[in-house]
Hints:
Layout (H helix, E strand, L loop, with lengths): L1 H28 L4 H18 L7 H23 L6 H20 L5 H10 L7 H20 L1 H9 L7 H42 L3 H26 L3 H21 L6
Helix pairs in contact: 1-6, 1-8, 1-9, 2-3, 2-4, 2-8, 3-4, 3-8, 4-5, 5-8, 6-8, 7-8, 8-9, 8-10, 9-10
Amino acid sequence: MLDLLIVPTVAALVILGLHAYLGLHVIARGVIFVDLAFAQIAALGATFALLWGVPHDSMVSYAVGFGFTLVGALIFSFTRMEDSKVPQEAIIGITYVVASAAVLLLAGLTAEGAEHVNETLTGTLIWADWGSVLQLAIPYSALGLFYWFARKPIHAVTFAPETAKNPRLWDFVFYATFGLAITFSVAIAGVLMVFSTLVVPAVIAFFFTEHFGRALVIAWISGAVAIVLGVSVSFWADVATGPLLVCSFGAVLVAAALLKRLGLGAH
């Protein structure tokens, strides 16, 4: 029983390690649904590859998915800086809806279309093995190192874009690397889990502090609690791990909101 719990838990924690950081930037930028849009764009790329006979979890599928997310990165990086009456969230929402519709259309052309659509939403975390964890951990570790060395310009373009040097370039770099991370995680975790690990821990963190470093620690802790709770309950109750993990993140968010109501708000 314990052996079955460890692999999906470790895989989810690897995803959380990077997504908690990215989620803080997403919340600070006010582009809450950009991660959902990126996840759906990556899923569209994987679906397009599947239509041509490319295995779902192959490197070719990842490459196609990343190519699709690069287009999204260009769109999101340039629309953020434009002086327009149309908010960027509208562009992000439209992108998400169009990508979702395209996934349904393309999936309908394949024999395993319904199963593929379900996997893009809920992932295949329960079937993860150590090989897939390693396949995820390597690019995530590399991206984590990149964000560490590039933390100053990325932090500037998020929190003070008017003071950042080459803001469009660094905005594109942020979104492009963001899209790369999502490309690898959506295949194993699914769109819903990807969104939860990005947004929920960041929201909880900003309940209690506005300091970025402390917020990151809180995001990691709250996300880890949700993951361990969700995976454990899913095995104990014998229910689907992906959907239950999303519900677990929601439960932890509610608990954090109650704590905030008790006077432990941001400072």
